[in-house]
Specification:
There is one protein chain. This protein is mostly beta strands. Helix content is 9%, strand content 47%. β8 and β9 form a beta hairpin. The longest helix is centred in the middle third of the chain and has 14 residues. Bound molecules: 2-acetamido-2-deoxy-beta-D-glucopyranose. 2-acetamido-2-deoxy-beta-D-glucopyranose (NAG) binds next to β8.
């Protein structure tokens, strides 16, 4: 199959429905809560392996299933309390061929260049991503990939050991989100984050991690509203320290086609895994950043 998916980068139009303001300072954060559950060291860059696997299938038509995989290294540079920069390295984009093997996707070079061109500044206070700041106007698809990564870093619990329901904003929109403490280890806590997708404000605008992969087929599906979506992530957080891993699963079932054919199901799996740290060589704080409001508890 010549994957239509790979008419890449046409991933248009996730408009920023967010106010843009130009801050007077070099800081992206407008406030900084004292850290209680997480603590990232200034001057350190935390390096994570990040992967998204995306597959779509039409039931009863296995030859029509298609897969895309994005891998990259996400480097989280700690510039100061609540001030972070996200840079991507070694980005690859694969699709599965007819034999099920992975091969480099068309447009991979453009894809990598777009994602690696600049660092994204954001404010990160004790797990909450509150603002995103860019030096230049980023392409919407670049922002989507990066916002997807930031959503994996996000944890809005007050206490990792106490279940809590919050309303939070990330790449998926503003949604009711349930946090559950599911495992309390000696060194690390594991929590489960589940979005109530029906609760998301402006559901027509529900974007999902599906958008983090270059994906044009969605236009085919627009006449077939989502029937069901689930979104669930498990996060492991080193006690009092940093995020060790996040694994998210998202499923979308689209309504059967009007001619009676079965519907379409898509699965997205997202994994962010801590690999190492390094001392930040130098810290660039740009003098002019545009701030995009994203989240306020
Ligand atoms: C969170 O919401 C879910 C679903 O409405 C409910 O079952 C659960 O008890 C709530 N948890 C807390 C801690 O309020």
């Amino acid at each position: 199959m010549e994957p239509r998916l790979l008419a890449l980068l046409a991933l248009a139009s996730v408009a920023f429905a967010v106010p843009i303001k130009v801050p007077q300072t070099n800081d992206c954060a407008t406030q900084c809560k004292a850290s209680t559950k997480m603590n990232y060291n200034k001057g350190t860059t935390y390096v994570y392996d990040y992967r998204v696997d995306y597959s779509t299938s039409m039931s009863g038509a296995s030859e029509d299933s298609a897969k895309l995989t994005l891998t990259t290294k996400a480097e989280l540079e700690v510039l100061g309390p609540c001030e972070m920069a996200l840079s991507l390295r070694d980005t690859r984009l694969f699709h599965s061929d007819a034999m099920g093997g992975l091969k480099a996707a068309d447009g991979e070079d453009n894809f990598r260049r777009g994602l690696e061109a600049s660092a994204l500044r954001f404010s990160y206070g004790d797990g909450a991503v509150e603002h995103i700041c860019t030096a230049t106007r980023e392409e919407p698809w670049v922002m989507n990939v990066k916002k997807g990564i930031l959503s994996a870093f996000q944890n809005n619990m007050d206490d990792l050991r106490t279940d809590q329901n919050v309303t939070e904003t990330d790449v998926t929109g503003t949604c009711k989100t349930e946090y559950k403490a599911i495992d309390r280890g000696y060194y690390a806590d594991t929590v489960r984050k589940t979005k109530d997708v029906l609760s998301c404000m402006d559901r027509n605008d529900y974007k999902t991690i599906l958008q983090m992969v270059p994906y044009t087929e969605s236009s085919d599906l627009q006449g077939n509203p989502l029937m069901k979506t689930t979104h669930e992530c498990d996060q492991v957080i080193e006690r009092g320290s940093y995020l060790k891993s996040t694994k998210c699963k998202e499923t979308h079932v689209y309504r059967p086609f009007s001619n009676g054919q079965d519907g379409v199901t898509t699965f997205v799996e997202q994994t962010l895994t801590y690999s190492t740290y390094k001392q930040s060589g130098y810290t660039r704080k740009g003098s002019f950043w545009r701030c995009l409001f994203v989240n306020k508890k």
